[in-house]
Write a structure and sequence with these properties.
Blueprint (H helix, E strand, L loop, with lengths): L9 H37 L7 H16 L4 H9 L3 H13 L4 H21 L9 H11 L4 H8 L3 H13 L4 H27 L13
Helix pairs in contact: 1-3, 1-4, 1-5, 1-7, 1-8, 1-9, 2-4
């Protein structure tokens, strides 16, 4: 007769839940940074930011959930979708896709990062006091080279929220500097994708020869 497995203890269950929540926060952080870079890149390359149309806005939630389901564990995705800012996160992802970002590269990287965060929090139970946004601005400047990505993050209206999310992740034992390094690489990809998409849309169509094709 097989002995039934002992139920997970409450502290262990809470740690797993907290790890999934931390991973969801890290996904929010990357999406917020990527959207800030996308907006800055569109303004830089096109002169204005591009917002979603009504149809895309309506479909963003369902479409984004399907995309993230391919790369995120169920617990992380559920935590992300349970947040009050899920509609905003869904719009961020949809906007990245419409801006020309290669999601076949972006999403797997996002999934690996979220899984790494979940594992780090599950292993680390130490908690330290959160600090103010100045600390995270200093870390940002040390981690990221000067340029569009770093400037977009610091100038974004979402910067206080970003700094607060960094503080929460740091409290849970996550290497925030590593996330910022990965975010910088992702941000460069967003900028380049927006620039490439802009170039493709603004390039003039080839003109036919003045006297028609040769026989």
């Amino acid at each position: 007769m097989t002995t039934p497995a002992a139920p997970l203890g409450e502290p262990f269950s809470e740690a797993l839940s907290e790890a999934a929540q931390a991973a969801a926060v890290s996904v929010r952080l990357i999406l917020m940074i990527a959207d800030a870079v996308r907006r800055a890149a569109q303004k830089h390359h096109q002169g204005k930011e591009k917002e979603l149309g009504p149809d895309a806005e309506e479909l963003a939630g369902g479409w984004s959930a399907e995309q993230l389901r391919t790369v995120l564990p169920e617990g992380i995705l559920n935590g992300l979708m349970a947040g009050g800012d899920w509609p905003l996160m869904a719009r961020h992802l949809t906007s990245l896709q419409q801006a020309g970002v290669d999601l076949t590269t972006f999403l797997p990287n996002l999934g690996r990062m979220a899984t790494a965060v979940e594992q780090a929090v599950a292993r680390n139970t130490a908690r330290i006091q959160a600090e103010g946004t100045d600390r995270w601005a200093d870390l940002l400047r040390r981690t990221m080279p000067e340029g569009l990505v770093r400037d977009a993050i610091l100038a974004s209206p979402a910067w206080p929220d970003l700094a607060a999310e960094m503080g929460r992740l740091h409290e849970q034992g996550v290497d925030v500097a590593r996330i910022l390094t990965d975010a910088h690489a992702a941000g460069l990809g967003v900028d380049q994708a927006v620039a490439a998409a802009t170039t493709a849309r603004t390039s003039p169509e080839p003109k036919p020869p003045p006297y028609g094709p040769r026989p």
